[in-house]
Design goal:
- With about 270 residues, this protein is of the alpha/beta class.
- It has seven helices and ten strands.
- Strands 1-9-10-8-2-7-3-4-5-6 form a ten-stranded mixed beta sheet, with helices on both faces.
- Helix 1 packs parallel to helix 2.
């Protein structure tokens, strides 16, 4: 198991890599510091022009909440710090409207140094209340993607997209966000949205943070929509486990050697414009 240590100098290097002013290939690091660079470096380095990383926190038995929907302490301090580091390394954090309404997340960077990412809510029917915490002004960009004409507070950017069976295609979500300068994205929730991005081959990486907790019943984590009758047809990403204090993060590479379909979609859009 790879134990990581995110020391101040490691985190400063990662922020410099994110800004394009440093690299991951030099420096003397302890084994634990190097593991931290291995975990966060691929996200900070922005290998692809446009990319998306997914993150989900779950229990040992693969659940993200209880039967009543309580999910507040599935991830404890180590897992939350990991999530905030991911936020600090991307341009924007994407959540679904159900997550925005039920969990009232702030989507800010509080447990590490770094800038707050843009907050993006996927809301096809315009259900998100305008007084939601996620739309509060704090200096970060706020974006709502919707298919209706619901008015939003001043300063909130609205993207109108057409739906397919009441939902947005994940590729159109990424394309529309790339068009306003949000290219490196964290797909944070919920599990339904993550599953759609995986099913459409639109995630470069997936981080699964497992807490030492057995919930026993409640909402399962990832449930993909594609059916695999044989294990030979199942996804087998290259996976690296990292110990973060009391939790374990599985870093799954979903696109090691080439960019997923978003790169092709962007290329076609440029050719047709």
């Amino acid at each position: 198991m790879n134990s990581i240590e995110v020391t101040p100098r490691v985190w400063q290097r990662l922020l410099e890599v994110r800004a394009g002013t440093s690299c991951l290939c030099c420096g003397k690091w302890s084994a634990e510091e190097q593991m931290a660079l291995d975990l966060y470096g691929p996200i900070a380095s922005r290998k692809f022009t446009s990319s998306a990383v997914g993150q989900i926190g779950q229990s040992l038995d693969g659940r993200v909440s209880t039967v009543s929907g309580d999910s507040g302490e599935v991830s404890r301090s180590d897992g939350l710090a990991h999530l905030h580091r991911l936020r600090a390394l991307v341009d924007g954090v994407v959540i679904g409207v159900k997550t925005a309404i039920h969990d009232s997340p702030r989507l800010t960077v509080r447990l590490c140094e770094g800038e707050n990412p843009a907050r993006v809510v996927i809301d096809p029917r315009g259900r998100l209340p305008n007084d939601s915490l996620v739309l509060e002004e704090n200096g970060a960009r706020r974006v709502v993607i919707q298919a209706v004409d619901t008015e939003r507070p001043e300063g909130v950017e609205v993207i109108n997209l057409a739906t397919e069976n009441g939902q947005f295609h994940p590729a159109e979500i990424l394309r529309s966000l790339s068009s306003i300068g949000l290219n490196q994205l964290l797909i944070e929730g919920g599990s339904f949205m993550l599953a759609k991005f995986i099913d459409h081959d639109l995630l470069h990486r997936l981080h699964i943070a497992v807490s030492p907790l057995i919930i026993g019943s409640g909402q399962q984590g990832l449930t993909l929509f594609g059916q695999s009758e044989k294990l030979s047809n199942s996804l087998r990403p290259t996976t690296h486990p990292f110990a973060l204090g009391s939790e374990v993060v599985f870093d799954c590479e979903l696109a090691q050697n080439q960019s997923p379909r978003l790169e092709v979609i962007n290329h076609r859009a440029q050719m047709s414009s």
